[in-house]
Amino acid sequence: MILDNIVEVKRKDLEIRKKNKTLKDIISEIDKSNNLNSRDFRKSLLKKYISIIGEIKKASPSKGIIVQDFHPEHIARIYEQLDIDAISVLTEENYFKGKDTYLESVKNIVSKPVLRKDFIIDKYQIYESKLLGADAILLIVRVLGEKLGEFYKLASSIGLHCIVEVHNKSELDTALDIGPKIIGINNRNLENFTVNLKNTENLIKYIKEDTVIISESGMKTLEDFKYIRSLPINGVLIGEGFMRKLDNVDTMKKFIYDIKNN
């Protein structure tokens, strides 16, 4: 399974990280830093129109390399110009070719809230995300299971918003037990990376109206976005759909306008 492989590699990577910098060291650096004020990620998604989280990513397990000439700072500057509401930065190195430094540099360039998109499996990464400058993190129910509640509570206690990501009804039930403020419905099955846009429609009926709902993955055409926008959701997360339009900002502007208005 792809997800199991990603998590196993992440565990090995964390063993090395913890030797290079201990949790105690990270907490100490957070306490000494004067530049870790969080931007309100959830508020950025509460708009009259559909909100957009623009993602910065070089690759994915299903698509391989998406952007050959990849410069996250350049992409961040483009996003800063556009009518998007928040930015997601992939930091997972082995399968998505991300880096922690991408998030740090993006946060310094933009005024929008920034999400660290990674596979959080250890509390160490929550503190790490705070030190990197993230305003929000992704907590995947399929990965965390019963640990979800304590991870959510810890992240909230240090000023991080969380997108609690689900793919099916069982995962949603686990998420709803902790009362998350933001739920991300992933239309992509992380076991085999197949996509079904109906997944959002199938799950939203179980979620309370005051919860911010984000539809993630698989939206490519304007028709896809029209369908998703017709549902009672607050926003969408767009990765590949933007990454393949980076060479033409005017095209991206029109794409965003059409998503929100047509």
TrEMBL record:
Q: Which PROSITE patterns match?
A: IGPS
- What GO terms describe the biological role, i.e. biological process, of this protein? L-tryptophan biosynthetic process
**EC number(s) recorded for this UniProt protein:** 4.1.1.48
The molecular function terms of the Gene Ontology recorded here are: indole-3-glycerol-phosphate synthase activity; phosphoribosylanthranilate isomerase activity
SUPFAM superfamilies for this protein: Ribulose-phoshate binding barrel
Query: Which pathway, per its entry?
Result: Amino-acid biosynthesis; L-tryptophan biosynthesis; L-tryptophan from chorismate: step 4/5
Q: Which InterPro entries match?
A: Aldolase_TIM, Indole-3-glycerol_P_synth, Indole-3-glycerol_P_synth_dom, Indole-3-GlycerolPSynthase_CS, RibuloseP-bd_barrel
The answer to whether UniProt assigns keyword Protein biosynthesis to this entry is no
Q: Gene3D superfamilies from the entry? A: Aldolase class I (3.20.20.70)
Enzyme class of the recorded protein, top EC level: lyase
Q: Which domain of life is it from?
A: Bacteria
The residue ranges of the Indole-3-glycerol phosphate synthase domain are 3-253
Catalytic activity annotated for this protein? 1-(2-carboxyphenylamino)-1-deoxy-D-ribulose 5-phosphate + H(+) = (1S,2R)-1-C-(indol-3-yl)glycerol 3-phosphate + CO2 + H2O
Q: Which keywords does UniProt give here? A: Amino-acid biosynthesis, Aromatic amino acid biosynthesis, Decarboxylase, Lyase, Tryptophan biosynthesis
What family classification does the UniProt entry report for this protein?
Belongs to the TrpC family.
- Which PANTHER family does this chain map to? INDOLE-3-GLYCEROL-PHOSPHATE SYNTHASE, TRYPTOPHAN BIOSYNTHESIS PROTEIN
NCBIfam families, A to Z: PRK00278.2-4
The molecule here is called Indole-3-glycerol phosphate synthase
Q: Whose protein is this, by species?
A: Clostridium tyrobutyricum DIVETGP
| Name of the gene encoding the protein in the UniProt record | trpC
